[in-house]
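Example record

The entry below shows one chain as it appears in the dataset: sequence first, then C-alpha cells.
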Amino acid sequence: MSLRDIVLYPNDVLVQKASSVASVTTEVQQLVDDMVATMYDAPGIGIAAPQVGVLDRITVIDISSEENPDELRVFINPEIVHAEGTIVWEEGCLSIPGIYEKVERSNKVVVQALDREGQEFELEAEGLLAVALQHEIDHLDGVLFLDHLSPLKRRMAVKKYRKVIDGIKKKRQEAQSKKKEQD
C-alpha cells in the first residue's frame, strides 16, 4: 500500500465521469489498497478513485465505530438501484478540506457493486453509510457535494474554501523555506 495525493477542488478530474472497471485485476486491487491507505491517512470515512486522480468507478468507505469495528467496504462499479426517504447530514470532502455543509440525501439506499475480489453483492444502507455511499458515487459521476447546495451557500462555501487553501499553501511554503534553511 502506498499513499496517493488527494486531488483538490477545482481540479477538472473531479467533475469528470469515471469509467466502469472491466475486470478486477491486481492493478485494481492495488489501487483499492492505495485508496484505503490514503483515506485512513487523511483521515476520512470515504474516498473515490477520481479523488486520487484515477477515473475508475471505485470507492472505499469505512464508517467504523467502537461498536462496529472493521467496517471497511470496497465498491467497484457501484450503482444505486433503490433510494427512499430523506436525511440532512453535514458533509465534508477530502478534496475540499475545511468545508462542511448540510446536504439533503436519501436516508436509505440499495447499492449493487463488485467487491475487492470482483464478486457481485448488494447492500442496503441507512443513515451515515447511505450518505457516504451517495457522496462517493456522486464523485464517480463528477458531482461534488457543493453541487447540492443553493447558489448562495455554494458561493459562500467556495469563498471560505479559498481562504482554507491559501492557509494550506502558506504553511507549505513556510515549511519548504525552513527545510531549505536547514539544508
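Notes for this example: The chain is about 35% helix and 30% strand. The helical segments are 26-41, 127-140, 151-182.
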